[in-house]
Design brief:
Pdz3 Domain; 6-stranded antiparallel beta barrel; 27 strands; alpha+beta; 8-stranded antiparallel beta sheet
Length: 495
């Protein structure tokens, strides 16, 4: 069975919020002398070359130029973690070591001395003065971080800030005049474009692999933060453990993504790898530098993807877009006039076809930013101006339904009439997203699970499900099915 896994599995993925180490920054105005990383890059290139960077002419179809350009800007990261043998063996250790017998022997209960483990991963230099971007899961909870440059120079790194919602972290080493990878534009990347992955898989330094962009705006539900932004670039460039935090570059050697995850039945490369788009990376690390944390704007809506079946029910001629399923009471969307069952098709004239696309676009903006939503309401196109709010402002007052689902850490939707017919069900609700909460902590429920009973009582729809749980205390037994798999599945937890 296929599984999604992060590429380095030696750190506990604690996704509790955005963390920064610079407590002297004004979180409203930020660092007034701040210069964006992209501006720093352009100035450094101008100083070096006498003019801003320009695209080279590539006469033959090979990857030598891109590999030569990008490789010096990718570093090897060695993170040290402590694992206490008295604790339960985490799943990420099981995935990493593979052998249960080895784990039982190595992490035996008799061994009470904390064990030191080193994780090997990658990072990308984004400025000549020593700033490096990598994945949050590479450095989260680490005791020390060592950076090894392409020329084998070693440095100790400090964490400037982290953002679990995008799985990004910004590091700093004390050095000048470093080679860095120039930012590209992930928006201009198209399916079929050639890309290169540069990193350190299996401790093999400076490895370059090539592939194509297989898809964009992929959501693989690997991040557990409630505000997680997953809109990955999917590629078939060979990526393995150790590539995590490394570079995905175009044929000009410019950065278009940070490698973050793979989908695999074995734990090794199987043709599916995923990278965080560089447009998200740029905004995230700029925020970490300027404010000490990520400043993200929110619409304050619960959404789902439009498809052919839903479009037919709603009487729509389009089949792509994002349906507004519900709104938070104090949200920017509600105050702007967005309504339930509106279908968002554009943001600032940029087409929106799926939920990951919408989340990615919004994630690039800060509270106070003004946007224009183009939506379909009752068959007619409507444009609504909106001013984004912070997360706290958007969900400070939520209805009962949202409160219980927030506690559970899931998003649900009613199953369609077609699903009822195909699965021979009279009702039920589908789990469409899982984030931090009771469900994730105490069960192994996966996305796509259809809940059909709670404590033995049938669940017809979302309203019934939330009503059953809103004031419930004590043990809960959920029964349901996974489409395509035989038999019923049961999960128990307590409220």
């Amino acid at each position: 069975m296929w599984k999604f896994c992060v590429l380095i599995l030696l750190s506990s993925i604690s996704l509790t919020g955005c963390n920064g180490l610079n407590d002297k920054k004004d979180l409203i105005g930020g660092d007034q002398n701040f210069v964006s990383f992209q501006a720093k890059q352009q100035q450094a290139l101008k100083n070096k070359n006498g003019q801003p960077s320009q695209k080279p002419t590539i006469e033959t179809f090979n990857f030598r130029y891109a590999a030569k350009k990008a490789t010096p800007g990718v570093v090897h990261i060695k993170s040290v973690f402590t694992y206490n043998a008295e604790q339960e063996i985490p799943d990420f250790f099981k995935d990493f070591f593979g052998s249960d017998e080895y784990l039982r022997r190595y992490f035996s209960p008799e061994n009470r001395i904390p064990n030191k483990q080193m994780g090997s991963a990658s990072g990308v230099i984004v400025s000549s003065d020593g700033y490096i971007v990598t994945n949050n899961h590479v450095v989260n909870d680490s005791e020390s971080i060592e950076i090894v440059l392409h020329d084998q120079r070693n440095y100790k790194a400090k964490i400037i800030g982290t953002d679990p919602s995008t799985d990004l972290a910004l590091l700093k080493i004390s050095e000048r005049n470093l080679d860095f990878i120039e930012f590209g534009n992930s928006d201009s990347v198209e399916v079929g474009d050639v890309v290169l992955a540069v990193g350190n898989p299996f401790n093999l330094a400076s490895t370059v692999t090539a592939g194509i962009v297989s898809a964009k705006a992929r959501n693989i539900n690997i991040l557990t933060d409630q505000s997680a932004v997953e809109s990955y670039i999917q590629t078939d460039a060979a990526v393995n453990r150790g590539n995590s935090g490394g570079a995905l570059v175009d044929i000009y050697g410019k950065l278009v993504g940070i490698n973050a995850a793979i989908a695999t039945p074995t734990g090794s490369y199987a043709g599916y790898s995923f990278a965080i788009p560089v447009e998200i990376v740029k905004k995230t690390i700029d925020d970490l530098m300027k404010y000490g944390r990520v400043m993200r704007g929110y619409l304050g809506i619960i959404i789902s993807d439009l498809d052919g079946e839903k479009a037919a029910v709603m009487g729509l001629k389009i089949t792509k877009g994002v349906i507004v399923e519900n709104l938070y009471k104090n949200s920017a969307a509600l105050q702007a006039g967005v309504q339930k069952n509106d279908v968002i098709i554009k943001i600032d004239n940029r087409p929106v076809e799926t939920s990951p696309q919408l989340r990615e676009i919004i994630a690039r903006h800060r509270p106070g930013d003004k946007l224009q939503l183009t939506l379909i309401r009752e068959g007619k196109e409507k444009i609504i101006p909106i001013i984004l709010k912070s997360e706290a402002e958007s969900i400070s007052s939520i209805d009962t339904k949202s409160a219980i689902l927030n506690k559970l850490g899931i998003e649900i939707q009613n199953i369609s009439e077609r699903e009822k017919s195909e699965l021979e069900l009279s009702g039920g609700v589908k789990v469409v997203h899982i984030s931090k909460g009771v469900i994730q902590k105490y069960t192994n429920i996966k996305q796509g699970f259809i809940i059909i009973r709670v404590n033995g009582k049938k669940v017809a729809n979302e309203a019934e499900f939330t009503a059953m749980l809103e004031n419930k205390k004590g043990g809960i037994l959920i029964e349901g099915i996974y489409p395509g798999f035989s038999g019923a599945y049961y999960y128990a937890f307590s409220l």
